[in-house]
TrEMBL record:
Name listed for the protein in its UniProt record: GntR family transcriptional regulator/MocR family aminotransferase
Family: In the C-terminal section; belongs to the class-I pyridoxal-phosphate-dependent aminotransferase family.
Key words, A-Z: Aminotransferase, DNA-binding, Pyridoxal phosphate, Transcription, Transcription regulation, Transferase
Originating organism: Planococcus koreensis
Cofactors, names only: pyridoxal 5'-phosphate
Matching InterPro entries: Aminotransferase_I/II_large (IPR004839), HTH_trans_reg/aminotransferase (IPR051446), PyrdxlP-dep_Trfase (IPR015424), PyrdxlP-dep_Trfase_major (IPR015421), Tscrpt_reg_HTH_GntR (IPR000524), WH-like_DNA-bd_sf (IPR036388), WH_DNA-bd_sf (IPR036390)
CDD domains: AAT_like, WHTH_GntR
A Pfam family recorded for this sequence: GntR
Occurrences of domain HTH gntR-type (ranges): 14-82
SUPFAM superfamilies named in the record: PLP-dependent transferases (SSF53383), Winged helix' DNA-binding domain (SSF46785)
GO molecular function: DNA binding; DNA-binding transcription factor activity; pyridoxal phosphate binding; transaminase activity
Length: 465
């Protein structure tokens, strides 16, 4: 073996034994040292390279440990076959340190919920009951659409609170709207054109994209999605948030509800995907029944989630399919299991069955209403420079700000003051910024005091007196 192939750099900060180890390793991987070849003895190599025998010994031990060479008793060191180890040759980049996340003092993120009022003790008690050794059955796979017990509770709840009329076999439980939407769009014809609200829930836009479906943005007006535009664009399936449009907070007017249902009924391939994500929290008048409850043609696919009403980390949402899509669903997803753990499903079912869910919702509705009142009162002091809209429901509002500043500047100034807010344009596929600028403020995750202090600070950094 030509010992000249090993080049060591004495001025390099890498220790000599590591350099030698690396040289030999690369020579073996690249085939310069062939499989079975005998390596020079430690003494010879040390002499040749003018390094200590210990240095060579350290390199050889490392190579033995990593399986590049083997030591044969009284014979010496031999190269081993390493094809399957060749990937080790890849130079690893130093792992990039992730940018430190901004620590916000006041986070007006609309995705946040109140975490202080969750009934942990009730949840724990039910969890203990569910995790009883006698519940052997829960260890086995359940119904692919979700456990009957949970679907039964959901159907009762939906009928009582949203007017949604459905059989349990129309309900599909999944781990979040984000998991049910892809299922749904795979069920529908590939060629259909989806129309989504703009501005709207960004996740759905990306889902259409990820699944290569044709989808167009449709303008959201003061009273919800433009039905005329749906018609004009030849949309087949409309994704809407009629009870509380995300993010503008617009409520779909009664006229538009009727128009939308008539639009859907007018052609056989048309459907409406109704995302009723935060309808539990309505503050100003009686709850508006879901579109599904008014649908006489079986064209509404109803979707909702426990992310707002219980917690986003639970990852449980549900979908109510019109009967006409059921057979196709069951055939397409015949071999799929439910994506939600049965123990969690059982826990939620029991929580609902024993009345804890409706009690929790009543409590949370009052709590969010109070938070909203605090937010409105805090902002009221700065009117008419700021104007609130979309406050009838949910956990966020939209703020129109009379200012010479742009939306980006408002968001950036807030960030510098450790306040997190979102520009309305960040939910717009065309990133159109309104003049005057509009900001989305979520209030679910902040306490009443934080809301008051946060707004005072926000106005201060925006120089609104
Ligand atoms: C419009 C809309 N739909 C659905 C959801 C909930 O999605 P998931 O069930 O995946 O948590 C949200 C959450 O913020 C939302 O804003």
């Amino acid at each position: 073996m030509d010992m000249l192939m090993f080049q060591l750099q004495r001025t390099d900060s890498t220790p000599l034994y590591k350099q030698l180890y690396s040289e030999i390793k690369h020579a073996i991987i690249s085939g310069k040292i062939s499989v079975g070849a005998k390596l020079p003895s430690k003494r010879k190599l040390a002499e040749f390279l003018d390094i200590s025998q210990t240095t060579v010994e350290l390199s050889y031990s490392q190579l033995v440990a990593e399986g590049f060479i083997e030591s044969r008793a009284r014979k010496g060191f031999y190269a081993l076959p390493v094809e399957e180890l060749a990937y080790l040759d890849v130079q690893q980049d130093e792992p990039q340190a992730a940018a430190a996340p901004v620590e916000y003092t006041f986070d007006f993120n609309p995705a946040k919920i109140d975490t202080q009022s969750f009934p942990f003790s009730t949840w724990r008690k039910i969890a203990k009951e569910v995790l009883d050794e006698m519940n052997h059955g829960l260890l086995l796979s359940g119904h692919p659409q979700g456990d009957e017990s949970l679907r039964r509770e959901i159907s009762r709840y939906l009928f009582a609170s949203r007017g949604v009329l459905c059989d349990t076999d129309q309900i599909i439980i999944g781990s979040g709207t984000e998991q049910l939407m892809p299922l749904l769009i795979r069920l529908l014809d590939k060629q259909v054109l989806f129309g989504f609200e703009n501005p709207g829930y960004a996740l759905t836009h990306s889902i259409f994209d990820h699944y290569d479906r044709k989808a167009v943005p449709v303008t959201v007006e003061e009273d919800g999605i433009s039905v005329a535009e749906l018609e004009a664009l030849n949309v087949d399936i409309a994704y809407v948030t009629p009870s509380h449009q995300f993010p503008t907070g617009a409520v779909l007017s009664a006229t538009k509800r009727a128009q939308l249902l008539n639009w859907a009924a007018a052609a056989p391939q048309r459907f409406i995907i109704e995302d009723d994500y935060d309808s539990e929290f309505r503050y100003t008048s009686r709850p508006i029944p879901a579109l599904q409850s008014m649908d006489r043609s079986g064209r509404v696919i109803y979707l909702s989630t426990f992310s707002k009403s219980l917690m986003p980390s639970l990852r449980i949402a549900y979908m109510v399919l019109p009967k006409s899509l059921l057979r196709a669903y069951q055939q397409t997803f015949l071999h799929y299991s439910s994506s939600v753990p049965r123990i969690d499903q059982q826990l939620v079912a029991e929580f609902m069955e024993h009345g804890h869910f409706s009690r929790h919702l009543n409590r949370m509705r009052k709590l969010y209403k109070k938070k909203l009142e605090h937010l409105t009162a805090a902002l009221q002091e700065f009117a008419p420079a700021v104007k609130i809209s979309g406050e009838q429901a949910g956990m966020h509002i939209v703020l129109t700000v009379q200012t010479p500043l742009t939306e980006t500047e408002l968001v950036e100034l807030a960030k510098r003051s450790k306040i997190r807010v979102f520009g309305l344009s960040s939910y717009d596929v065309r990133a159109t910024t309104a003049v005057p600028p509009q900001i989305v403020l979520g209030f679910g995750g902040l306490s009443e005091t934080e809301i008051t202090e946060g707004i005072a600070k926000l106005m201060e950094c925006w120089k609104i007196a």
